[in-house]
Amino acid sequence: MPRSVNSVAKRARRKKVLKQAKGYFGRRKNVWTVAKNAVDKAMLYAYRDRKAKKRNFRSLWIVRINAAARMNGMSYSQFMGKLKTGGIGLNRKVLADLAMNHPEAFQAIVEKVK
């Protein structure tokens, strides 16, 4: 029995990868073997960095809250501890936004927890 190959599906797979490699430099954009490796690596980086992005933003928020809390005579850990015991349920993202864009509102929160 002759060997059966599915050229249509094979071509579709390759077209999909080459379309994802659009904009890459040199042979990475138009040579199948090079483009496949480049796209695979890019997908790994994208997956990894979606997780890293969350960590980076959390640390940025903590730095901003710490700076604003210290300007109001408190450390970050004291401030977050007193927020917890005071029953104020604001997350770090909101607190960092208040600290940056509405310092008077942040100061009011600090006065409330003191």
Explain what the structure shows.
The radius of gyration is 26 Å and the shape is rod-shaped. The mean pLDDT is 95. It starts with 6 loop residues before the first helix and ends with a helix. Helix 1 packs parallel to helix 2 and helix 2 (32-71) packs across helix 4 (92-101). It has helices at residues 7-20, 32-71, 76-86, 92-101, 103-113. The chain is mainly α. The chain contains 5 helices and no strands. The protein has one domain: c-terminal domain of poly(a) binding protein, CATH 1.10.1900.20.
CATH architecture annotation name: Orthogonal Bundle
Share of β-strand residues: under 5%
- End-to-end Cα distance, whole Å, is 84 Å
Number of strands: 0
Organism: Christiangramia antarctica
InterPro entries: Ribosomal_bL20 (IPR005813), RIBOSOMAL_L20_CS (IPR049946), Ribosomal_protein_bL20_C (IPR035566)
Family: Belongs to the bacterial ribosomal protein bL20 family.
Function: Binds directly to 23S ribosomal RNA and is necessary for the in vitro assembly process of the 50S ribosomal subunit. It is not involved in the protein synthesizing functions of that subunit.
